[in-house]
Automatic annotation (TrEMBL):
InterPro entries in the record: Cytochrome_b-558, SQR/QFR_C/D
Protein name: Succinate dehydrogenase
Bilayer-spanning residue ranges: 16-40, 60-80, 110-129, 160-182, 203-224
A GO cellular component entry from the record: membrane
Length: 226
């Protein structure tokens, strides 16, 4: 094993990979949310359909998508390896262990929260990403050019109450996952500082709540107001 493989398969190395991929996925969420805000324009979905077409056809975005998939794969794989190592290191829990006294609920349930997000992602991609990339959507003509009507798919999906419920519940899980994950990433990267850590923690909480609220508002808006 060379030094590179050795470093990145060690526990510290895997934590660093989880931190870097986690922060990268956070940046994706911001870009994705800003793109989705096009849905609120009162233009019958024109801006959103043109934006989605750009995302589907731009070669740079396609390369970014591959990096995004790798980000998810490494993040999930390292989470599984680290959980298994933790369990193997302490197969029997301490008799007088009261984890709720010195750790948050989110930090003890990152695996459960991550699993809810993964199930959400599979449902989400199947409904939006797969037809957007591989066909199955109605067409719409905008200024003499034919586009896939992804906007219509969004509107129709968010008329279904249980679909909206899946999104809202998943966004609560995502918020808790990010609240712990954000500050934990900075710790794993060794960026612990008496002066800056409290700010990073507060910023992480605000970031997680705002981003997840932004995503949760979309299905609620289409269900109740459109
Ligand atoms: C209500 C909120 C959301 C809406 C309306 C929405 C909408 C969409 C749409 C329409 C696509 C297909 C775009 C295209 O391929 O051109 C897409 C793709 C995707 N979404 Fe979402 N999304 C939402 C929330 C989320 C969340 C919370 C996550 C992650 C946890 C996420 C992750 C992804 C990923 C990974 C892709 C594929 C990559 C991409 O096309 O950029 N989405 N989303």
């Amino acid at each position: 094993m060379n030094w590179f493989t050795k470093t990145f398969s060690s526990t510290v190395g895997r934590k660093i990979i989880m931190a870097v991929t986690g922060l990268f996925l956070c940046s994706f969420l911001v870009v994705h949310l800003i793109g989705n805000l096009q849905l609120f324009r009162n233009d019958g979905g024109e801006a959103f359909n043109v934006y989605s077409h750009f995302m589907a056809s731009n070669p740079i975005i396609r390369v970014m998508e591959i990096i995004l998939v790798l980000g998810f794969v490494f993040h999930i794989y390292d989470a599984l390896v680290l959980t298994r190592r933790n369990k193997a290191a302490r197969p029997v829990s301490y008799a007088n262990n009261h984890p709720e006294e010195n750790s948050s609920w989110a930090s003890r349930n990152m695996g459960l929260l991550g699993t809810i997000i993964l199930v959400f992602l599979i449902i989400h991609l199947w409904n939006f990403f797969v037809p957007a990339r591989f066909g199955g959507l109605d067409g719409v003509v905008i200024e003499d050019v034919e586009y896939d009507n992804l906007y219509l798919r969004v509107v129709e999906s968010f008329q279904i109450w249980w679909y909206v419920a899946i999104y809202v519940i998943s966004m609560v899980a995502l918020a808790y996952h990010l609240i712990h994950g954000f500050q934990s990433a900075f710790q794993s990267l060794g960026l612990d500082h008496k002066k800056y850590t409290p700010f990073i923690q507060k910023f992480g909480v605000a970031f997680s709540i705002l981003v997840c609220l932004g995503f949760a508002v979309i299905p609620l808006y289409f269900f109740f107001l459109v």
